Amino acid sequence: MSENANLEKIEVDGEEATLGEEGKYHYMLKQAKTSVEVKAVVEEKALAQTYVTIDNSGYELYEKEKTVNITSKKTEVSVKVKAENGNIEEYILVIEGLPDDTSIKEVVVNGEKATYIEGKNRYEIRSNLSTYNIQVTLNDILATLKLDENEPVIGKGNITVNKTGKETTVKVTVTAQNGIDKEEYIIAIIEKASNSNLDIVKVNGKEVKVGPDGTYKTGIPMTEENISVEAIAEDKYGVTTIDGIGQNSYIASKKDAVIDNVKLYIYEIVVTAEDGTQETYTLEVQRLEVNYNIQSVLVGKDNENLEEATLEADGKYHYKIDRVEEAIVQIELQSEKSSVEIDNGKLNPANVMLRNEITEVPIRVIAEDGSYEDMVLVIEKKSNDVLIKQVVEVNGTESQKIEKEEDTFYVYINDDTASIDLDIILNDKNAKLKLSEEDVYETGKITRTVDLSTYEQDGGKVLTVEVQAEDGVTTKEYIINFAKKADLSLKQVSVNGNIITYNEQTNKYEALVPNQNAPLIEAIANGAKQTVTLINEAGTEIGAGIGVVTKTETLSTTKLTDTYTIRVTAKDRRKLWIQRLHLRDKAKIDRNRYKIHQSR
């Protein structure tokens, strides 16, 4: 059974196609056609049973014919051969048509080339003539073109038409050599405009508006070193010049270096329309002052009482005013050519509402050239704070504590204190204070030495402090009440010279001492003039002293613990401070030592 699935030949319209090196069959059309007859013949014939098909149109024995439509410049046709044993081989026939180029090389109207408008298949040219001779040349000189109703011509054609209005159009139809591809174009002859209007004028990049008198006027900062002018016509087919200088375009530009002593520059701008119509415009550029400097910022509660605000390190102007709800703000500028806006647009001077304790007032200084600088005025109402922040002892050795209750300060002092130095500090550092018997106020704080030699036990010692707020109106009095109090606390307890640490958990002084020994017990009071007494368990006073008691005491031989009481008595003996010592033999610790306890 034959395995041969080879082709003998492929014919197109009776001509044999050529087998290329890449394995495909090729045929090139000789003229424009929309269809061809393709014939395929197999190599293996009788007695073998070999079949062939074209574009899957059904197998036939030995050879096959089929009409193939030409739809593009290159048409591919599939040919399959099925051998007797069933093997199938596919072959490709490539039919190449005539060129499909439908592009135009150029369009010339009355000797001038028209411009192609990308993406619109449109050529445009502007003219003021009444008759237009149009010549069209194709890129493929063998393609066909048709101008309006003229007969088709090959490669190049011309037509003469009359002007029909502001825009005269001619239709061009191009047919490629292959007779399949076509393209339509429009040639538009547009009447030249008489538009000589000026659209945009810019100076140093900023647009300038025309004034009521038809003149363009603007200013530039005095600090600018150059003047760059750009003028743009309304019609892009016009031509613009500045002082006679241009680039044959509707856009013109010119740049000048400024001269120090020249403040006004005048430019002549000319726009020439397509049809020759001209219009002349004038641009005036003035060099303007740039000055944001403030001479002074004046503030007050009325026009007759304006005072100068202070420029502080934060870059803001500051002013303190009485406790009023409105202030007058007046700005004095360094330059008469500058202007100012106060509190977001108010004129100078301005009334400013003071709704808060501190009000920030925005100030904008506008220079002659229109640029501006923003500043801030801070108006603070004078404080009505008359609080005393604290009363403290200067050296911190005489007072036991200082307490405050409403408008009264209580200073508790040791009963033997002859004088005390106090700082009386205000909450507001700008408020003033003095003692009631004094004539002169001091600001923020006073330091006084208080003589307590005249202190009476029943009447005590009292000072009156007068406070005046920063606003000069709000006042308040405070009382400082001095109360002497005996210091009945212990400074130190020791046994045999060893200082005993107070046990906060058991509330006792505890010490271990050698058994059957006579330890030296010493108790020192914080108050050097207080009486300190040592009492044994029987309640007998076994030792006493002023400020300190020292006693060598023989311990019991029958008990593990001996307890002693320490009593501190004030000079007037009205108050007592009692503490106890416990001396204990704790066998589990050391049978040869005792432990001392203290309790209240």
Explain what you see.
- The chain is an all-beta fold and 600 residues long.
- The protein is built from no helices and 57 strands.
- Strands 49, 50, 52, 53, 55, 56 and 57 form a seven-stranded mixed β-sheet that branches.
- Strand 39 and strand 40 form a beta hairpin.
- The radius of gyration is 59 Å and the shape is elongated.
- The N and C termini lie far apart (132 Å).
- 26% of the residues are buried.
- The model is unreliable at 573-577 and 584-600 (pLDDT under 50).
Q: Tell how many strands the DSSP assignment holds.
A: 57
The helix-and-strand class reads mainly beta
The gyration radius over C-alpha positions equals 59 Å
Note the total helix count.
0
Q: Summarize model confidence as the mean pLDDT.
A: 90
* Beta-strand proportion: over 45%
Poorly predicted runs of 5 or more residues? 573-577, 584-600
User: Helix amount, in percent?
Assistant: under 10%
Cα end-to-end separation: 132 Å
Main beta-sheet annotation:
7 strands, mixed
The oligomeric state is single chain
Choose one word for the global shape. Answer: elongated
